[in-house]
Description:
Layout: E1 2-10, E2 15-24, E3 29-33, H1 40-48, E4 55-59, E5 66-69, H2 81-86, H3 90-108, H4 115-133, H5 139-149, H6 166-179, E6 184-188, H7 196-208, E7 212-216, H8 220-226, E8 229-234, E9 237-241, H9 245-280, H10 287-299, E10 328-337, E11 340-350, E12 355-360, H11 366-374, E13 380-385, E14 391-394, H12 408-413, H13 424-430, H14 447-459, E15 465-469, H15 477-489, E16 493-497, H16 501-504, E17 510-515, E18 518-523, H17 526-532, H18 538-543, H19 570-608, H20 617-650
Parallel strand pairs: 3-7, 3-8, 5-6, 6-7, 12-16, 12-17, 14-15, 15-16
Antiparallel strand pairs: 1-2, 1-4, 8-9, 10-11, 10-13, 17-18
Amino acid sequence: MISVENLKxxxxxxxxxxxxxxxxxxxxxxxxxxxxxxxxxxxxxILSGLQQPTSGVVAIPxxxxxxxxxxxxxxxxDTTVREETRKAFSDHVKMKGRLDRLQQEMADRTDxxxxxxxxxxxRFTLEHDRFMMMGGENYExxxxxxxxxLGFERTDFDRPTREFSGGWRMRIELAKILLRHPDVLLLDExxxxxxxxxxxxxxxxxxxxxxxxxxxxHDRAFINNxxxxxxxxxxxxIEDYKVKYDQYVVxxxxxxEQQLRAYENQQKEIADIQAxxxxxxxxxxxxxxxxxxxxxxxKIVPIEVDEVDRKVMHLKFPPCLRSGDYPVICDNVRKDYGxxxxxxxxxxxxxxxxxxxxxxxxxxxxxxLVKCIMGEISYTGTLKIGHNVQIGYFAQxxxxxxxxxxxxxxxxxxxxxxxMRLKINDLLGAFMFGGETSExxxxxxxxxxxxxxxxxxxxxxxxxxxxLDExxxxxxxxSKDVLKEAIKAFDGTAIIVSHDREFLDGLVTKVYEFGxxxxxxxLGGIYDYLRAHNADTIxxxxxxxxxxxxxxxxxxxxxAIEAPSGKQSYQDHKEQQKKIRKASRExxxxxxxxxxxxxxxxxxDQLFMTPENASNMELVTEYTSTKEALDKENDHWMELxxxxxxxxxxx
Length: 651
């Protein structure tokens, strides 16, 4: 499908990679891996046609369509969510317009027996058949399934896109790409702006989709669940492993051990030859043997050992001033946007030195409460910031706010003050930006490198309250571990908004769960929280969240897991949750059926392209029956989804 031959890319003197050759086949699901700065994002840009290599060939058939989602995208739209997403079906809309015009022309004309009229009917029939083969007008249902899968509520569909954050607008772009059903999907860190629920939906979508996939991700579970092949950029070339990521790690270690053994043997051989040359170089009787050894030495091709990124990000937050005993106290805090209540009756006390987690589905108010603490938005109730509290805030979009046109050094030099200006090079070196790297412009940095640079800015002022909103986005697995250890060693207080249970494990001692307009406190670490919900993942725990009774608004939500009270007995609640789980399974089963039928229709479309199958009545019959079944299943999915929404609303 895509053939890459002898690709070479140079930035400066040293090539980023060279002699790179590989093929992306139909149905390949490829994980593109390599250390930060190895060229993963650059390679995706080249495959998408947005960047040209220094030399080499990227061959893509003319009829092959490609969908590319970059890490960072500059968005400028002013439509509703529905209208923006519908742009993915621009070809459908144009074809529907042509059909409407042809139909109107047939209605207006009366020369039913003329050759021109018959030609018009034939043209309408051909266009209509093509329109139906492309899915007809069912794209609206497919569009809604995709948007809801990526976390949007139906009430969001008619909201202007400008009301959404950059992360949510990136979801809209992802939805548009998926809905176009390209032959090849190129996805650069697609999970960075998704919550656990949406990540699982995307895993299922990609696993059932017929498109070839090439993706870059630091989410190990995600790439294991999606991919079946691993391409590693190492030492400036590509190593191709026809296995999932976990198996690749094992094979890569075995490969490197073999390389090291061969390298050591070669070095011993070189040393022995050199020792012979040095010993007998000036003995005339050994002149012939010495010349033979010199030629032998010249013919040896050095064995190259796959590089391992052994550089470590040494991250240590500076000593901080002692804050008051209680940096954050919330008393009956409430936030409304118009008629919508984000949360109410929030009672929260965070002690000095505590590390706490905010968890909850997107849109439940985690970032909103953070903004209340930061004093960026208004609220009702009482929110006290303790004595001598100095806040350091790392937002989700922090890396995107950097000035792309200046260098790494200048980025830090602009905000450094006092003695810190003399230590900029040391600080950059600790974050793997030492030497000539510090003179790179921000615009050439990868997402992970930008996040590290944004983190440096946070270190320039001693703070005693850290608020980190999804700090692990764009960070690779080793960098996550380093950041985690630094936060554990931090003298002050930390609030961490994250869905990454492995990152939170052993780091936090209290979990605040956001959902249903309430904030519930859970004492203990993240796995204590999961055990309390009898769940394996944060996603499952949030699904099992037991809402507080509306009849008791004065009850404090900041307690351990609440039992239903008032109108709803425990048994009623349990039965309601059982119905919700059943309805959810029915929706998932319906989506699987739809995906299977859509895949079969795509296969039939390909078969119809060949002359021998163009008039195969058996295939035509199958296509018609499958299309009818798909239409019915789409309607059935709509009914099931509405039923599920009703059950969840009454839970």
